[in-house]
Specification:
Layout: H1 21-25, E1 28-34, E2 40-42, H2 44-49, H3 70-85, E3 90-98, E4 104-115, E5 121-130, H4 132-165, H5 171-179, E6 191-198, E7 201-208, E8 219-221, H6 227-234, E9 238-240, H7 243-249, H8 254-257, E10 264-272, E11 275-284, H9 292-329, E12 340-347, E13 362-368, E14 373-381, H10 386-404, H11 409-422, E15 429-437, E16 442-448, E17 454-456, E18 462-464, E19 469-470, E20 486-490, E21 496-500, H12 512-524, H13 530-544, E22 550-557, E23 568-573, H14 578-594, H15 601-618, E24 623-630, E25 636-643, H16 663-670, E26 673-679, E27 682-690
Parallel strand pairs: 16-19
Antiparallel strand pairs: 1-2, 1-5, 3-4, 4-5, 6-7, 6-11, 7-8, 9-10, 10-11, 12-22, 13-14, 14-15, 15-16, 16-20, 17-18, 17-21, 21-22, 23-24, 24-25, 25-27, 26-27
Helix pairs in contact: 4-9, 5-9, 9-10, 10-11, 14-15, 15-16
Length: about 700
């Protein structure tokens, strides 16, 4: 060791005849080296440092070879020679001497070089002292500093990993943190395994590196002779400190991991509230054994990972329940609609740290209606939690019920608003209901605080359709306004109607109008197929992220591939008006023959007369008779009789001599299809006849 930073010694000119007593008091020996004569004078304390008696030393440096090993002497001579050569005034160095008992001791020397007027070195005076304790203390300090640094690094790894685990929401997030380069790999582990306890077994959820999986260990029993099983079974960490110990304790596992060159391993039980939820194994290839500090760090790390895994497991269970609730509230399937292509999509909003943000009140629905019509609904209940989802489910059901009963769009919306207002909740909802007649393309739209619909034309252009609207559902009844104006728009064959919630439109830093402009441009450039377009739009929403839900419904009116319906006639028949009944019979007969249904004219007239008579006899009020031709591959003639009674017709047994009660039997016998539909507060009894030659 060389110490070039020593200060020049301040010694008297007649030294060593009168050495400084302070040196002796500090157990430092002194020397005076005459470079001209080569004599190396030492005082008694210097003799003691070199473990020499006065009679064993003759003032020649060569005599010191008995105490200074050759390698140390070469190194010391090189230090002195370099100091004299480069003009230094002093030098310092550590070297070892071998005492007479054979032990090696560290010694330190400092020398002051005196030169003549020409700069030639003439004399070196200096000191020597025993430095064994000094270097031992220094080495101990270095070792302690290294241990402290290692402990700080390990503690830092635990802190960093714990901080990262605080943001882990799922089990996979926990695994990713553990396997991250800023995680356990800083502790020197070359391989990792982790398993969760499920139904008395351990299921492997993480292993690494690639290719280290042991066949047959994906699911293991707790009583099997594996280290993770033992850690779970005993609730005690399992530290394996050598390959020999590993092979002896776990002979079934060891042959499968010899290729990993494992020299030590630590298997930790993951315990929460005194119950094992899993285990984790760290395998090392560059160490043997674990110090007390190592074990404490690993135990602390295992505890942190266990807490995070428990939290992530609960989160995933709750999310599964919430997702199940969300899916149960939305329609399981969307019915096929004759004359239209339909696509629906839903994306849950996400926000870090909140499970409820994955659940929302957005919904869509498609409702088949009588006469080839269809109702399309899009809505958004206020809030992002399970309560919003529950309210959404109830609101969706009542909207569907009101629409299926045959109420007008405005009535459907008004009744839904009253229902939500009377529900035990403080939530409101925006909604848009569109009722489309696909045979004509006419769409009636009612809007309750919701954003306007969009239409993409066959030429690819897309536009926003301004629709008059009312207050959101649940607020209109509270503020005494149940008026919902009805807007009318038309879908040409090939046009697509788009209904969505504001999660698809809103963008950070942009207002609603700007968001609509961006959306219309995206739709205009999107795929023609409604399903592909829906996928494209929802992918954009996914990429954008955000904490709001997105519900989307696309309805495209198909291009006409069949002839238009041949005609439509309607007649009002008042009760107690024989003339009106006669006119209706004549209308039906004339229309049937004019449309080319002469072969079935008698059957159609008979069934229609029976349906009209039943409506007038068994209900109060008038009846409305509608006769029309339906388009399609099989041409049909449809007869509808609408009345104001909600009572459904029922089959009755006719007496032996009576004729009453045979109406429904007659309808069933003569028609190809028949049924009953709700129409607001009343009903409509209909029947159809297949007539291939209809015009």
């Amino acid at each position: 060791m060389v110490d070039r930073g020593v200060s020049a010694l301040s010694l008297p000119d007649d030294w060593p005849a009168h050495p400084d007593p302070i040196l002796a008091l500090n157990r430092m020996g002194s020397f005076d080296w005459d470079l001209d004569s080569g004599l190396f004078h030492m005082d008694s304390q210097a003799h003691e440092v070199f473990d020499l008696r006065p009679d064993e030393y003759d003032d020649h440096p060569e005599t010191l070879a008995v105490r200074v090993p050759r390698s140390e002497a070469y190194r010391l001579d090189a230090v002195v020679a370099q100091a004299m050569k480069d003009g230094s005034e002093n030098y310092g160095a550590y070297f070892r001497i071998r005492r007479r008992d054979g032990t090696l001791r560290w010694t330190h020397t400092q020398g002051y070089i005196r030169r003549d007027d020409t700069g030639r070195p003439r004399r070196i005076i200096g000191i020597v002292r025993d430095a064994t304790q000094e270097l031992g203390d220094s080495e101990a300090r270095r070792e302690q500093a290294a241990q402290d640094a290692a402990r700080r690094e390990q503690t830092n790894v635990v802190q960093l990993t714990t901080a990262a685990l605080a943001h882990a929401r799922t089990v996979q997030d926990v695994i990713d943190v553990v396997k991250d380069t800023h995680g356990l790999t800083h502790l020197g582990a070359t391989s990792l395994v982790m398993g969760l306890v499920e139904a008395g077994r351990i299921r492997l959820i993480a292993e690494g590196p690639a290719g280290s999986f042991v066949p047959g260990t994906l699911v293991t029993r707790i009583d099997e002779p594996y280290p993770m099983s033992e850690a779970v079974r005993t609730l005690t960490p399992c530290f394996i400190e050598s390959p020999e110990e590993f092979a002896a304790r776990y002979p079934l596992l060891w042959p499968h991991i010899t290729g990993l060159k494992i020299t030590a391993a630590a298997y930790l039980p993951l315990i929460v509230q005194a119950r094992p939820i899993g285990a984790m194994g760290l395998l090392y290839s560059d160490r043997r054994g674990f110090s007390t500090e190592d074990r404490n760090v690993l135990l602390a790390l295992g505890s942190s990972i266990a807490q995070s895994l428990q939290r992530a497991t609960f989160y995933e269970q709750e999310k599964d329940l919430a997702t199940g609730l969300q899916q149960a509230m939305l329609p399981r399937t969307i019915p096929s609609v004759r004359g239209a292509d339909v696509a629906v999509r839903y994306r849950a909003g996400t926000a870090a740290g909140s499970l409820d943000r994955d659940i929302g009140g957005d919904w869509y629905d498609l409702i088949p209606l009588p006469g080839g019509r269809v109702g399309a609904v899009i809505g958004d209940v206020q809030g992002h939690d399970t309560h919003a989802a529950a309210v959404m489910g109830q609101l969706r059901i009542v909207l569907r019920a009101y629409a299926a009963e045959g109420h007008t769009p405005a009535t459907v919306m008004a009744r839904a608003s009253v229902f939500l207002n009377e529900l035990d909740t403080d939530r409101f909802a925006t909604c848009l209901y569109a009722e489309a007649d696909l045979s004509t393309g006419v769409v009636q739209v009612v809007r309750a605080g919701h954003i306007d619909p969009l239409i993409r034309s066959t030429d690819g252009s897309c536009r926003r359709v301004a629709v008059p609207g009312g207050l959101p559902l649940g607020l209109s009844a509270e503020f005494g306004s149940l008026e919902y104006p009805v807007g009318t728009l038309e879908l040409d064959p090939g046009d697509t109607l788009l209904l969505c919630t504001d999660g698809l439109v809103e963008q950070p830093g942009a207002d609603l109008d700007e968001g609509v402009q961006v959306l219309t441009a995206l739709i205009a450039s999107g795929p023609q197929d409604v399903r592909d377009l829906a996928d494209c739009l929802i992918e954009v929403a996914e990429e954008r992220g955000g904490d709001d839900d997105v519900a989307l419904l696309l309805l495209r009116r198909r291009a006409l591939d069949t002839a238009q319906p041949g005609g439509r006639l309607q007649q009002h028949v008042a009760p107690g008006d024989p003339e009106a009944l006669t006119q209706a019979r004549h209308m039906i007969g004339a229309a049937v023959r004019a449309w080319g249904a002469k072969e079935r004219a008698d059957e159609i007239e008979l069934v229609a007369d029976e349906m009209i008579t039943n409506a007038l006899m068994h209900t109060e009020g008038s009846a409305i008779v509608t006769l029309r031709v339906l388009g399609g591959s099989d041409r049909r003639l449809r007869v509808e009789v609408e009345d104001s009674s909600s009572a459904l017709p029922r089959r009755r047994e006719a007496g032996e001599s009576g004729v009453s009660g045979r109406g429904l039997l007659l309808v069933e016998l003569l028609t190809d299809a028949w049924g009953v539909e709700a129409r607001g507060g009343g009903k409509c009894v209909w029947c159809e006849f297949v007539v291939p030659g209809l015009d």
